[in-house]
Amino acid sequence: MSKLSEKGSLDFLEKSGFKVVRREFFSTRFGLRNSLKKVGIPCVLKVSGKNLVSKGQSKLAKDFQNYTCFIKDFKRLKKMDGFEGVLVKKIVFGREFSVLVKRNEFLEYSLSISQIQSNEEGLKAISSKSFPITKDKLKKMFNESKFSKDFSKRGRKVLEDFLIELCSKIKENSKIYSVDINSLFVNEKSPIIVNASVLLG
Fold this sequence. Notes:
Distance between the termini: 4 Å
Order of helices and strands: EHEHEEHEEEEHHEEE
Radius of gyration: 18 Å
CATH superfamily of the largest domain: ATP-grasp fold, B domain
Number of strands: 11
Largest sheet: 7 strands, antiparallel
Number of helices: 5
């Protein structure tokens, strides 16, 4: 098995034809300023590496308004075990989802989806279905996942089209063991992948 870094995973998905958050990668202090100019502030600063300590993941991304804060946090991130570099990501708006496609020991794929935020009743759930993924199956998954009532029909269609395309492309590529997208932001125009982890094997 080969686990791609955050940078490698986003690059892989972008080359596969999916819309990925605007980002820049750097590994030295000298690359920081240019990356910030290209992406813009405010943005998100997140470390990238293949063997990062998982328990520190939630503390790696921060939003900043000035260059001084970025310098300070870059120095901290650079000390982390498994550090390969830092991704500067454009802040994205929309409804946030978690998507996981994974292959089991029988070479069968399954799709799991969930809405990150709770719905109006304070509920959220994960729905999982085996391949093949169809529109009818996705409709059931959306209901099981307890999506918010204000999630528009257009937004649901955007998410539906994305999931069908993702599953189709993964099925066509036997090298992909799993694709974990956390987070996927969906608005009424397009889905945007912000964080992802791809495992090949």
